[in-house]
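Query form — protein Endo-beta-glucanase

QUESTION: What is the three-dimensional structure of this chain?
INPUT:
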Amino acid sequence: MFSLPIPLRGLICLSCVLLLLTFQVFEWTIRSPAQLPSSGDEPSHAYHLVEDYSGSSFFDGFNYEDAPDPTHGHVLYQSRKSAQAMNLTYIGNDGIAYLHTESYAQAPQGRPSIRISTKRTFTRGLFVLDLLHMPVGCGTWPAFWTTAVNGWPRKGEIDILEGVNLEVDNAMTLHTGAGCRQPKERQMRGTAETMNCDVKAADQWPNQGCGVKTQRSFGHALNERGGAVIVTEWTSKTIKIWQFFDRAALPADLASTSPDPSTWDVLPDALFQDFECPIDKIFRDHVVLINTSLCGDWAGNTYGTSTCPGTSCNAYVSGNPQAFKDAYWAIRSLRVYQR
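ANSWER: The structure tokens for Endo-beta-glucanase are given below.
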């Protein structure tokens, strides 16, 4: 049998190895990025901190809205200058931001209060509110929410923490125009109340939206539990809301610069998804708002069905300043992350 000399055979084998390596490199080059070996999530998919509203600069990132209340409340929203002069907004020695409703004078024209909105707008993100105390009492309508400055309800509204009078269950709600519905059964801890997010839905109250409620998570009940860390994740496909009352049991990565809710082993309190609802087309360009309205379209219209005194919400708000000493927000921080 014919046989090559050993040195020549070795040279040919080395050439084969080099040829195989060349083909391997070529194969890796033409693969799509999704096919390439991965060590985990791409950095572009991770959340990073974009706004930190906390400490002495908390209010610097907000606008004070002092226009008439769009929900027809018996309330007089104050400018920053007026609010500070009346000691309604300030940073405490503990670094906590306080937002009060006036509680020391008769108020026949409406009680002074606060409505602030972020100067920056957001489309999608992770919003983390560390809340120590929220406003409570008859006639109150406190809310932590997001919406667009213009185009309501076309660009949507996300109510994260909201309720009225002496309610203790949190109402988490979306408000939109036509074309957004939610299924009744979802992977969440809360209970679906209404399924049509359209503010003009024929089978719901005007502006009712699609709501989810959780028990003992609002008002006096929230304050008695020491407040809460409230997390809202808004993506192109879902809007999820968590309320964490035990700070010792918070997801560990909430203390990091890049939290990842996909790793949390806990269902959200509310889940809204793109089931018959194009979330990414509707919800965009939102500011974050914190306000305390009084009476108005919701608290006023349901005042008579509550256990609050009298029959007139406006009269109660005007004539009982001392009843509003606990109608205040105490906020450690609001942090916003985006991808």
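ADDITIONAL NOTE: Residues 48-248+267-338 form a domain with the Jelly Rolls fold (CATH 2.60.120.200).
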